[in-house]
Amino acid sequence: MKSNSTIEVALLGGKGTIGSGLRNFLPKFDSRYRFTIIDLEDSQVKSKIADSTDTFVDLDISKDQEKLKEALYNKDLIIYLARKDPLDKMNLMTDIVFNSIEEVSPESLVIASSSVHATGGAYFPFDKQPYSTIAKRKFENLKNWPKPLSNFLEPCPTGDYGLEKTYVESWCQRFAATNKFAIAARWGGINDNNEMIDEVAYFTVWCHQEDSARFVDNCYKTFLDGNIRSGAHYYVISNNTYNIFDIDTSKSELGYEPKFDAEVFYKK
Fold first, then answer.
1. Which residues span the domain enclosing 213?
2. How far is Cα 202 from Cα 225, in angstroms, rounded to an integer?
């Protein structure tokens, strides 16, 4: 394992919402983080960071594998956030990304974007009990809170978006089987301004950008300690009062302690 004064991070698709949050908050946990943002030239940069010293690489990941490998070389942490449609092109891009990492940066930690939608079949649509009652915020009608959906729950997607995340998770498990290091982040509801979104049961999946960065920092530090469970998938959710997802596993395995609660938006 390298011991550097900096932690070199590649953010694939890093101009977007999750990447911008990581760029903003990761340095608050450790000032050694340095970012290389790999994204399409015409993608909107959502980060509001002024005077950034980050490196930007304009690149269509799916079209220039040699330039991608050059950008990934010798990175400590690679975070795969990029996506595209349709499903077959997305999965092909995922193949390109993981094959490139295998070739030029096999000792790095990979955190690849999955989503709560990878297991959407377990709770969505919110028309089955107890989730329909929860979605309506009729908490007083629940006799018992449901057991949180386990991090160990295998994918059960309900659409192409979930299928693409399932494919990403399979690559993480393939890395683990060949003694490399990758985990899948089942991101919850992350948005640009850490707001409550008018979307069914969003309060159960909401995740503050700072908590998403806290999760990534915990993963990387656990990796440095030699304790990362490669191939794992973890739900990345804030400390929401009415959470339906397991975050206790990431607390115990990674030391993840999210600080925010979606209920702040519902206080009178």
1. 7-265
2. 34
DSSP 19-47: HHHHHHHHHHH-TTEEEEEEE-TTS----
Q: Is the dihedral of CA 193, 196, 197, 201 positive or negative?
A: positive
Domain membership of residue 1 (yes or no) is no
Compute how many other C-beta atoms are within 10 angstroms of the C-beta atom of residue 47.
21
Work out how many domains the chain is built from and give that number.
1
Q: What is the pLDDT of residues 34-81, one digit of tens each?
A: 999 999 998 888 887 766 789 999 999 999 999 999 999 999 999 999
Which CATH number do you get for residue 87? Answer: 3.40.50.720
Which one, of 209, 195, 194, 189, lies nearest residue 25 by Cα? 209
pLDDT in tens, 203-252: 999 999 999 999 999 999 999 999 999 999 999 999 999 999 999 999 99
Average pLDDT over residues 18-24: 96
In order of 67, 169, 240, 249, 266, the CA distances from 39 in angstroms are 12, 21, 32, 32, 36
Work out whether the CA dihedral 152, 153, 155, 159 comes out positive or negative: negative
The tens digit of pLDDT for each residue in 22-43 reads 999 999 999 999 999 999 998 8
Q: Identify whether 221 is part of a domain.
A: yes
The verdict on residue 2 lying in a domain is no
